[in-house]
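hey so i finally got around to running both of the ones u sent me last week. sorry it took forever, my laptop kept dying halfway thru and i had to restart like 3 times lol. anyway pasting them below in the order u listed, first the sequence line then the structure token line for each. didnt double check formatting much so if smth looks off just lmk and ill redo it

first one:
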Amino acid sequence: MNADSIQTAAVIGAGTMGHGIAQVLAMAGIKTRLYDIDAAGIESALTKVAANLDKGVARGKVTDEAARAARAALSGTTDLEAAVDGVNVVIEAVPEIMPLKIELFGKFGEMLGPDVLLATNTSSLPIGEIAAAAKNPERVTGMHFFNPVHIMKLVEVVRTKDSSDEAIATSMDLARRLGKEPILVKDSPGFASSRLGLVIGLEAMRMVESGVASAEDIDKAMTLGYGFPMGPLKLTDLVGLDVRLSIAEYLAGELGEHFQPPAILRDKVAKGELGKKSGQGFYDWSE
């Protein structure tokens, strides 16, 4: 298989990452089915994709014709078997819960032939363990996209010990077809981006916790002083504090104490301050 021959795709999970991945697939002319167990979640996801396309048209980034074509290429379903029927590639973007991912890849192995590329969007979990649940684990890779998917250029393609050269080449080429810049990394805790980004994010949280500076000023230090496009605390709010806590706990167990989550992160998650999605994190998003 090669990326140019991919005509149909399924994205599993209609959350923040899933609907973004589905959007860029559809914009690349790939007929895309977005699956979720929650019908309301699918409806919300399709509404967000439509809003993103409308903004792109309004800003002159997307033509009317391209927006109409993307909408026509994208559909939603709560039927997993219907979602993956006849597709060339499946990209999983469900929550970072290992048993859930393993269960899904076990189902994919039963439902799909050996020539279908399977990719997971996990940002930190060991992909080799996920791939082992599927038949033909050599066709499984990581394709870690970044939020917001339709804007961010990076895709981390992750190779497991079993990933075939063909699967890696197809994943890299597919990322390029979607207008992204892929990097290739080994299946290791946190890969490259999560491992580096989390270290900076956790240290920024500790600085807020100890009163070094406000969240806004710490972010300014990194955007104005180091050229970051977004400060680490605002990025944490967009990713979700609960997601960052989960990744930090995993990496602390795998890589050591410097990934231990600070008390301020645990406290905010316990209070339901999860970032933009809850209206409050290190910033106030309620307005």
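and the second one:
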Amino acid sequence: MATEIKIPRVGMSVADATIIEWQFKEGDRVEERQVVVVIETEKVRTDVESPASGYLHIMMNEGEAAAAGQTIGMLTETKEELAKIQKETPAGKPAEAAKSAEPVAAEAPASEAAPPKEAAPATRGEERIRISPVARKLAEEHAIDITKVAGTGPGGRIVREDIEKAIATKEAAPAPPKAAPPVEAAGERRVKQAIPLTGMRGTIAERMHHSLAISAQLTAMGEIDMGEIIRLRNNLVAQESTLGTRVTYTDILVFAIARILRNHPEINASIIDKEIKVWEDINIGVATALEDGLIVPVVKHADRKPMVEISKEIKALVEKARENKLSGEDISGGTFTLTNLGALGSGWTFETAIINQPESAILRVGAITDRAVVRDGQVVARPIMTYSLTYDHRVIDGAMAAKFISSLISALENPTLLLA
């Protein structure tokens, strides 16, 4: 009896997953709990383990998208059963598509039968070149002529390893002399680099555009005197060995925001199915910059955790993010997001952050810089941090946003009350 390999539901995500790489070839023997395929959904790569032992039949190719719960492969107990399934459902062709194509295929001559779906075919003379989508993309990025590459995959299919070898060979060869740059016509521009809008960058582009398209976003901006928070953090840093963590300003901000949201539940809400749902849980997302984009791991139940625990958890999540080890659960369920650009030296600046859907608000803060301010009629220098609160006006009124910010500023300028 055959066992299906399906796209798992990753956390609360309902987005399609992209098949990144099959770890075995068509017909290979796979043991239960071995990683059989790598998928990517909402900027997170996930290893999918084999649900059983058996011979692998691949139904969807690398680079294709599939919904949660969709069958992308099969595992058979015997090679005879594998051969039968391969005949009924060609490799790289989902069962639904194979069934709909059967009547047409039956009428066509055998020599004209449609080939299995894979990457767009190329030709080597009269010969059709079979190449995986991942290998084709890699070849295009490195200008590899695939007609000169010998495939080592099933049926001579060119796979990623073949292209990597070709790249290594190309890099080892002496570089040809550079040609003189062509004369450009007026108004033309030369392309320095073409970056495919795929993977994490593609997901970011899609989600940011979607967020702006479906919500009424408005941004409130201002300043916060961080003198008392600086004093608090210095005291906490001095106790690093005792606490077991070096507390950062991000840790303190997450701690403060989570507790202020208790008294402002209307901010901790989302529009779901034409209803404003006010969340019981307070889960704070912390925007984390990576080399190829941005990801938002989530501190769950942040209002119930002490600052030291929040600090340790944020450090663990950031480390997982940079090692590409976050799970779908790590980035799902957020109810409010903080993005702190202070470490990047952003200084006294204001920017409009885009809401991380389906949340209703995001707080962006900048670096703490000395600014001239008036205190008791005197101009003095104070450590000031800028903030920008973007909120969804469909859920949050201006007065609600003002009250939340006012409470947060009071807590940060008087942290004794916050800690009490």
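quick thing i noticed on the 2nd:
Residues 95-120 have pLDDT under 50 and may be disordered.
anyway thats it, ttyl
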